[in-house]
């Protein structure tokens, strides 16, 4: 048997390892056994190669790999982690190379890291399909099966031509020692490496069993020292799936641990004690010093308290490390950095800490120069304003990241303004683009101030206000100081899957879930509009039930107002809409896959407005209202006084009030609109794409919605022309829908949330 594939499998890997089993089964060569070191009970799909499961003690990855090595029968050991996999031709390619070189050769399958598993399988498919087209010119005819590709390959008989062709096509590269010593990063992990079992046994290499985070370092450094060369397969890949949910499914490197640095340095010391090759020792020392310089200072110094036990333990490890290495390895560092290391080395930790603070200060100052002062306002938040006492009489509001004066924060503000008046100062955040507009809207409001998002005043109020009412997330770097109270109103009953319910986060950063988690821990309360949202937020935000407010939506109070007809008439007049015309509101959402750049989404109008105008303009006008993420302005001037483009209108609730029919798609607007009991049409021209590819839904759109799903512009027109039929057809479903989603909204949600805010 040629290989023993060795896979340590922990508690978090039990599902992913099934994928790996399927992946190994897909390999076109099965000349291997699979040894899984796992202390859990494990269920695997059936496969046609031998699988052995071993238990191990202590419960560390190092012990898992050692135990697996003990029973391995393969000539070569191939290390694959449980949450990763191989491109399907990989073992086939290895078969042609592994064993052709001396036993002290390490073969390394090039690692491809990704946060999107489906993308990597696309790459794989593309590769498979290009197999036949991209056949080498080394004299073969077209082969049917990928494995035939290497039919003529025969290094043993010194088939130079073939060997050369392979070389040319980057199937693999040979690195000698000198080269390897220049770049150690990849060589400190065993994943993706194929190593002769005899070679490992001859030298008694084993993994570090008592270091739970860094068991590979010592093993791999020794392998590097004693091996003659490393052959890197650059054509096929070891696919490493990076975890995008570090909260529920952290990889070893994502588990938050404050002894991480201690363990790192400890692994480094152990390895150094075993190494003999001075050059390798120096290169490795440089890597460690580099890490200390880059990450460690920050971790240690940003803590406000004095050095705790953990830090001392870490410093002691680093001290040991520094005592083992040649000081010349860090002689190229700036003097002050050298001083830090020397202070640690001589055990003078408080002086080291003080010097580190100076280094960080210098780095920040340097950053300011590099950024030409752009970061300066944010710096004032940390260096100055965060030290000003919290003001118990200031309430800060933000709606849609400062884009408008609207949504629940607006109605909570109005309530507070009316009932508490000058007891508080009310500060609204407006982004640069909408600042003048929001300021003019609020100019006659007493005790109210508008600040520009990210400006100095914003930093001041963000650092010193006692109360916060936001409908989206606060900045990542916001520090919630003792005594502050934060109410998150959120901005809609969810239809599309949210945060932890999303499989991948293609349209957001891979740390989205983690960031969201930490941000939402700063919220004292989260507003919910109905039991359905309450249940979803608990799961999708992992938000504690007892902190949610079962209040209903403040933004919907206006829809239940006894004065709503009067208000509507006033708004209609303000917008210049003839009072004798009925209003259709078209309010679609945004699409994750249609954008210009980060946060800049585009919208293409599919609704045939010319046709609607032709048939409906006697009786109706249409209000177009794009989502706040949409950056492009849609020119509707050709439709004259039939279309009102109110995409910039502050408060969509006021547009609900004046409209007689709503057309929407996957936007949460229909949950609120249903309160008015007026007809809703769903124009979902891209339903299949949106539902299957972009996002999943919480509701069954075909069964649960209080209106028809319409895929063509023509059917929308038809539904409007027969709106009474639509109304009667959906009457029962409408009643059920409102019963399910809108019973908490009784017109007094703002009062409930305002009281919860002020209760300290
Ligand atoms: N909105 C609007 N105009 C639109 C669409 C939305 O003013 N054309 C406002 C509504 O208040 C709506 C809110 O923005 O409720 C959220 O919009 P969605 O289309 O539902 O999309 P999204 O911003 O992704 O939020 O739990 C709710 C979700 O987070 C959805």
Describe the structure.
It is a single chain. The radius of gyration is 32 Å and the shape is globular. Mean pLDDT is about 85; it is low at about 120-170. Strands 1, 2, 3, 4, 5, 6, 7, 8 and 9 form a 9-stranded mixed sheet that branches. It has 4 domains: about 5-240, Spore Coat Polysaccharide Biosynthesis Protein SpsA, Chain A (Alpha-Beta Complex), CATH 3.90.550.10; about 260-375, no CATH class; about 380-550, Rossmann fold (3-Layer(aba) Sandwich), CATH 3.40.50.11820; about 560-740, 3-Layer(aba) Sandwich (Rossmann fold). About 40% of the residues lie in helices and about 15% in strands. The chain is built from 29 helices and 24 strands. The termini are far apart. With about 750 residues, the protein is α/β, with parallel strands linked by helices. The structure holds [cytidine-5'-phosphate] glycerylphosphoric acid ester. [cytidine-5'-phosphate] glycerylphosphoric acid ester (C2G) binds next to loops. It comes from Acetilactobacillus jinshanensis. It is a peripheral membrane protein. Belongs to the CDP-glycerol glycerophosphotransferase family.
Short description:
Belongs to the CDP-glycerol glycerophosphotransferase family. The chain is α/β, with parallel strands linked by helices and 760 residues long.
What topology does this entry show?
Elements: E1 3-9, H1 16-26, E2 32-38, E3 51-54, H2 61-71, E4 76-79, E5 84-86, H3 90-97, E6 105-114, H4 117-133, H5 160-168, E7 172-176, H6 177-182, E8 193-196, H7 197-203, H8 216-226, E9 229-241, H9 260-274, H10 278-301, H11 309-324, H12 335-345, H13 349-370, H14 376-383, E10 391-398, H15 407-420, E11 425-430, H16 435-442, E12 448-452, H17 456-464, E13 465-470, E14 485-488, H18 512-520, E15 525-528, H19 531-540, E16 548-550, H20 564-575, E17 582-586, E18 595-597, E19 600-601, H21 609-616, E20 620-624, E21 643-645, H22 652-658, E22 661-664, H23 669-673, E23 680-683, H24 687-694, H25 701-704, E24 709-710, H26 713-721, H27 723-729, H28 731-741, H29 749-758
Parallel strand pairs: 1-2, 1-4, 2-3, 6-9, 10-11, 10-13, 11-12, 13-14, 14-15, 15-16, 17-20, 17-22, 20-21, 22-23, 23-24
Antiparallel strand pairs: 4-8, 5-9, 6-8, 7-9, 18-19
Helix pairs in contact: 8-9, 9-10, 9-11, 10-13, 11-12, 12-13, 14-17, 15-29, 20-22, 26-27
The chain binds [cytidine-5'-phosphate] glycerylphosphoric acid ester.
């Amino acid at each position: 048997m040629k290989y023993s594939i060795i896979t340590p499998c922990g508690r978090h890997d039990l599902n992913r390892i099934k994928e790996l089993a399927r992946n190994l089964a897909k390999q076109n060569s099965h000349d291997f056994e699979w040894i899984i070191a796992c202390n859990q009970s494990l269920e695997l799909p059936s496969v046609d190669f031998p699988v052995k499961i071993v238990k191990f003690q202590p419960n560390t990855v190092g012990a898992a790999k050692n135990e697996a090595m003990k029973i391995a029968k393969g000539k070569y050991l191939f290390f694959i982690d449980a949450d990763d996999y191989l491109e399907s031709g990989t073992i086939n390619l290895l078969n042609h190379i592994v064993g052709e070189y001396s036993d002290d050769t390490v073969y390394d399958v090039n690692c491809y890291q990704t946060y999107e598993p489906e993308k990597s399988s696309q790459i794989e498919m593309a590769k498979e399909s290009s197999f036949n087209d991209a056949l080498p010119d080394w004299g073969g005819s077209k082969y049917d099966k990928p494995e035939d590709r290497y039919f003529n390959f025969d290094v043993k008989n010194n088939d130079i031509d073939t060997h050369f062709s392979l070389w040319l096509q980057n199937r693999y590269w040979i690195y000698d020692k000198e080269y390897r010593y220049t770049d150690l990063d990849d060589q400190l992990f065993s994943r993706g490496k194929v190593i002769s079992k005899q070679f490992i046994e001859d030298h008694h290499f084993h993994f570090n069993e008592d270091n739970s985070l860094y068991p590979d370092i010592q093993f791999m450094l020794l392998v590097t020292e004693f091996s003659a060369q490393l052959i890197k397969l650059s054509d096929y890949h070891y696919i490493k799936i990076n975890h995008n949910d570090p909260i529920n499914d952290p990889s070893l490197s994502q588990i938050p641990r404050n002894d991480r640095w201690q363990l790192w340095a400890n692994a480094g010391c152990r390895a150094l004690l075993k190494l003999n090759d001075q050059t390798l020792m120096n290169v490795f020392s440089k890597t460690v010093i580099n890490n200390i310089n880059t990450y460690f200072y920050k971790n240690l110094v940003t803590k406000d308290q004095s050095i705790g036990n953990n830090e001392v333990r870490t410093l002691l490890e680093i001290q040991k490390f520094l005592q083992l290495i040649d000081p010349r390895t860090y002689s190229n560092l700036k003097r002050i950095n050298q001083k830090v290391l020397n202070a640690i080395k001589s055990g003078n930790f408080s002086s080291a800490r003080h010097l580190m603070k100076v280094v960080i200060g210098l780095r920040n100052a340097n950053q300011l120069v590099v950024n030409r002062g752009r970061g300066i306002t944010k710096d004032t938040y940390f260096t100055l304003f965060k030290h000003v006492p919290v003001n118990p009489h200031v309430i800060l509001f933000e709606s849609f990241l400062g884009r408008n004066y609207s949504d629940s924060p607006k109605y909570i503000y109005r309530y507070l303004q009316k009932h508490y008046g000058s007891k508080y100062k009310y500060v609204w955040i407006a982004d640069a683009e909408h600042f003048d507009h929001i300021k003019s809207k609020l100019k006659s409001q007493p005790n109210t101030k508008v600040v520009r998002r990210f400006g100095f005043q914003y930093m001041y109020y963000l650092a010193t206000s006692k109360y916060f009412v936001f409908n989206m997330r606060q900045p990542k770097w916001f520090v919630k100081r003792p005594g502050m109270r934060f109410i998150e109103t959120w901005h809609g009953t969810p239809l599309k899957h949210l945060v932890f319910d999303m499989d991948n986060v293609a349209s957001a950063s891979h740390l989205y879930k983690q960031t969201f988690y930490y941000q939402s821990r700063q919220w004292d309360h989260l507003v919910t509009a109905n039991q359905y949202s309450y249940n979803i937020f608990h799961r999708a935000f992992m938000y504690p039930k007892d902190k949610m407010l079962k209040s209903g939506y403040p933004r919907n109070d206006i829809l239940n107002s006894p004065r709503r007809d009067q208000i509507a008439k006033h708004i209609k007049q303000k917008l210049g809409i003839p009072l004798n015309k009925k209003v259709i509101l078209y309010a679609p959402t945004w699409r994750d896959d249609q954008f210009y750049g980060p946060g800049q989404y585009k919208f293409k109008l599919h609704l045939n407005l010319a046709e609607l105008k032709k048939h409906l303009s006697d009786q109706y006008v249409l209000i177009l209202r794009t989502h706040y993420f949409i950056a492009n302005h849609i020119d509707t001037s050709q439709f004259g006084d039939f279309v009102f483009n109110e995409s910039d209108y502050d408060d969509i609730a006021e547009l609900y009030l004046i409209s007689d029919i709503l057309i929407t798609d996957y936007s949460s607007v229909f949950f609120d609109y249903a309160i008015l009991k007026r007809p809703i049409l769903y124009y979902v021209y891209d339903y299949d794409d949106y539902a299957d590819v972009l996002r999943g839904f919480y509701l069954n759109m075909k069964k649960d919605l209080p209106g028809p799903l319409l895929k063509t512009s023509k059917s929308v027109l038809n539904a409007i022309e027969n709106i009474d039929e639509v109304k009667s057809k959906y009457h029962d479903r409408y009643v059920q829908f409102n019963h399910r989603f809108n019973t908490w909204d009784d017109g007094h949600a703002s009062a409930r949330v305002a009281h919860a805010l002020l209760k300290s």
